[in-house]
C-alpha cells in the first residue's frame, strides 16, 4: 500500500480527533449526553464548539481527498513520490487546520484550509 493510501486512512479518522476533543476534554459529556450526542455538540461553546466545527469540515473534505488519491492511482501518476508528498501535505494541513480552529485563528485557518484544497487540486492536476 502506498503512503498516499495510508494518508486516506488517516484522513478518515481525523474527524474523530476533533469530536473527541469536543466531547471528552471538558465537563458535561456522559451517559446522558451520549444518548443524543448531536444535541450535546450543538450546545457547546468556545473551543469545544470550534472542535465540533472542525470535525464537520473534516467530514466534508475527506471524500474529495480520497477521490483525488484514488483517481491519481487509477490513472497511474508516473511519480509516486510526488503523489505521496501531496497526500502527506494534505494530512499535515488538516492537522494544522484543527489546531488553528481550536486556537480561534480564523485568517490563518482559512489559509491552511486553502492550502489543503490546493493539495486536492494538485492531485487532480498531476493525474491529468
TrEMBL record:
SUPFAM superfamilies: MAPEG domain-like. It is found in: Membrane. GO terms for cellular component: membrane. The chain crosses the membrane at residues 110-127. Gene3D superfamilies: Membrane associated eicosanoid/glutathione metabolism-like domain. It holds the Pfam family MAPEG. The keyword Transmembrane helix applies. Keywords: Membrane, Transmembrane, Transmembrane helix. InterPro entries: MAPEG-like_dom_sf, Membr-assoc_MAPEG. This is MAPEG family protein. It comes from Pseudomonas fluvialis. The lineage of its organism: Bacteria, Pseudomonadati, Pseudomonadota, Gammaproteobacteria, Pseudomonadales.
Amino acid at each position: 500500500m502506498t503512503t498516499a493510501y495510508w494518508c486516506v486512512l488517516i484522513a478518515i479518522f481525523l474527524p474523530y480527533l476533533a469530536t473527541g476533543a469536543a466531547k471528552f476534554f471538558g465537563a458535561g459529556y456522559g451517559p446522558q449526553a451520549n444518548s443524543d450526542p448531536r444535541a450535546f455538540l450543538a450546545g457547546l461553546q468556545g473551543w469545544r464548539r470550534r472542535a465540533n466545527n472542525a470535525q464537520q469540515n473534516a467530514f466534508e473534505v475527506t471524500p474529495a481527498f480520497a477521490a483525488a488519491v484514488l483517481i491519481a492511482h487509477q490513472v497511474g501518476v508516473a511519480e509516486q513520490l510526488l503523489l505521496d508528498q501531496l497526500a502527506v501535505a494534505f494530512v499535515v494541513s488538516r492537522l494544522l487546520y484543527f489546531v488553528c480552529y481550536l486556537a480561534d485563528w480564523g485568517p490563518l485557518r482559512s489559509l491552511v484550509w486553502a492550502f489543503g484544497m490546493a493539495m486536492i487540486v494538485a492531485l487532480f492536476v498531476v493525474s491529468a
